[in-house]
């Protein structure tokens, strides 16, 4: 019994040492287990859910491993005499039923809370952007603007140009996503979120989401739903800028400047920084031999 207690103390000290060495903070990369840090309020919520779920799993795991080790040591063979046999233990079985239920209920509760936060939609977002997906590229429309042609400012990609989606930081941005043909999926890894774009929904309830971006920079975006031959080339870039630069960018676009020139006018690189276009014609010719 004393040896088992010593082993339990050693295991507890080892766990405490791991926690101490890794600082046990939600932002610590150790606890993320490869999960990205994220750049939006919604991403932070999902990251924290993932981290604390992992920590809870580790606590349960260490508890189970400790009990296994204690059982091995405590009930090791000491002779040929058969140890006392127990047919059942009702109190212990009740505990073994209640504890997993509480764990599942806790995980369910925090998952629903996080899901509601991620899918929450405000009555009056600061910015609304329409995202149109098609085989095999993207169009980004800023409906609250008017270009020189009388139509809303938009950026559309093609086989030679990666479309750049410009968004402001620290503002509530609503994306209304639609597909012109098949199911696509709007995915920005740094958002820690993707939304399947179902055709025919006409920017309905299921094709709308909102984020608040907290970091400036360039972030790659992709289609995450296999949508045909050139699905792998269906990339875009999110360019997060300050609210002032965002307004200047839209003003430059409304005056007739291209996406490239408008970005250059606010001190941003005009070309994508995270991905590149592929020559689909050359790729097709190479595939044909």
TrEMBL record:
Region of interest (Disordered), residue spans: 268-289
Enzyme class: translocase
One term under GO cellular component: membrane
E.C. number(s) listed in UniProt: 7.1.1.9
Topology in the lipid bilayer: Multi-pass membrane protein
Annotated keywords: Copper, Electron transport, Membrane, Metal-binding, Respiratory chain, Translocase, Transmembrane, Transmembrane helix, Transport
SUPFAM superfamilies per UniProt: Cupredoxins (SSF49503), Cytochrome c oxidase subunit II-like, transmembrane region (SSF81464)
InterPro entries documented for this protein: CcO_II, CcO_II-like_C, Copper_CuA, Cupredoxin, Cyt_c_oxidase_su2, Cyt_c_oxidase_su2_TM_sf
Subcellular localization, as worded in the UniProt entry: Membrane
Entry's Gene Ontology BP terms: ATP synthesis coupled electron transport
Gene Ontology molecular function terms on file: copper ion binding; cytochrome-c oxidase activity; oxidoreductase activity
Pfam family, one: COX2
Transmembrane spans: 50-73, 94-113
Keyword Transmembrane part of the UniProt annotation: yes
Function noted in UniProt: Subunits I and II form the functional core of the enzyme complex. Electrons originating in cytochrome c are transferred via heme a and Cu(A) to the binuclear center formed by heme a3 and Cu(B).
Protein known as: cytochrome-c oxidase
Organism: Geodermatophilus sabuli
């Amino acid at each position: 019994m004393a040896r088992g207690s010593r082993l339990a103390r050693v295991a507890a000290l080892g766990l405490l040492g791991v926690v101490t060495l890794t600082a046990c903070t939600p932002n610590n990369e150790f606890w993320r287990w490869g999960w990205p840090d994220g750049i939006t309020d919604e991403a932070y919520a999902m990251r924290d859910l993932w981290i604390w779920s992992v920590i809870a799993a580790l606590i349960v795991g260490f508890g189970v491993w400790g009990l296994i080790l204690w059982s091995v040591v405590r009930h090791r063979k000491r002779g040929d005499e058969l140890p006392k046999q127990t047919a059942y233990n009702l109190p212990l079985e009740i505990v073994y039923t209640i504890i997993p239920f509480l764990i599942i209920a806790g995980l369910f509760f925090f998952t629903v809370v996080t899901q509601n936060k991620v899918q929450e939609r405000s009555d009056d977002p600061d910015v609304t952007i329409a995202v149109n997906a098609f085989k095999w590229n993207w169009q980004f429309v800023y409906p609250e603007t008017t270009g020189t042609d009388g139509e809303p400012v938009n950026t559309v990609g093609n086989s030679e140009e990666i479309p750049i989606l410009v968004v402001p930081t620290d503002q509530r941005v609503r994306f209304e996503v639609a597909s012109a043909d098949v199911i696509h999926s709007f995915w920005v890894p740094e958002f820690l979120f993707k939304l399947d774009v179902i055709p025919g929904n006409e920017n309905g309830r299921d094709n709308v989401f909102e984020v608040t971006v907290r970091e400036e920079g360039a972030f790659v975006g992709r289609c995450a739903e296999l949508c045909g031959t050139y699905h792998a080339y269906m990339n875009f870039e999110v360019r997060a800028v300050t609210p002032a630069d965002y307004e200047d960018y839209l003003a430059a676009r409304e005056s007739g400047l291209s996406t490239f020139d408008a970005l250059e006018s606010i001190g941003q690189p005009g070309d994508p920084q995270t991905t590149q276009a592929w020559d689909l014609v050359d790729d097709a010719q190479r595939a044909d031999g």
